[in-house]
Fold:
Amino acid sequence: MITLTQIRAEAEKCTDCPLYKHATQTVFGDGPAGAQIVLVGEQPGDQEDLAGKPFVGPAGQVLDRALSDAQIERKKIYITNAVKHFKFEPRGKRRIHSRPNAVEIRICHQWIARELSTVAPGVVVAMGATAAQSLMGKVIPIGKNRGRELTWADGRRGIITVHPSYLLRIPDADSKAREYKAFVRDLELAASLLRK
Ligand code: URA
Structure:
């Protein structure tokens, strides 16, 4: 069977869509091959692009705190993104995140499909609309599908929740705290599905 290391080496050479041209590197998933939970984000951000690892920047810090509050060890789960290259608009010295489009999500799906075949987790968590679109093969609303088990297009069990960057953008402290708790509850739900 093909290993994650082999798939990663192939993904590092991917030129199937134009995003590789401006990104520093392919940011492949991270975590053990035997992980029972896979978390899927959108695409690497500025810091992930430079580090070559998913969720190491501000969104990663929120995610780490939420995982710890949900009593899930980050080192035991596999974390990846729907799109493996950073898409951005240059603005002065800064690189501003730009959302991947449907074509980029579809072309990049080959990598997540291969990661999931190899890891074979019991539950796959989509964090945000881009991850859900990649896993379902079509746009699905978060609000309506949140808080319950669903089945992804490949037949795997999963849940959908918000993206941790969404939590960072909420200005009001009460709403932020409420949404953070709901995010932790979603992660707890994912862990509880494994026990069923
Ligand atoms: N946002 C994502 O969706 N993925 C990352 O790796 C970092 C930020």
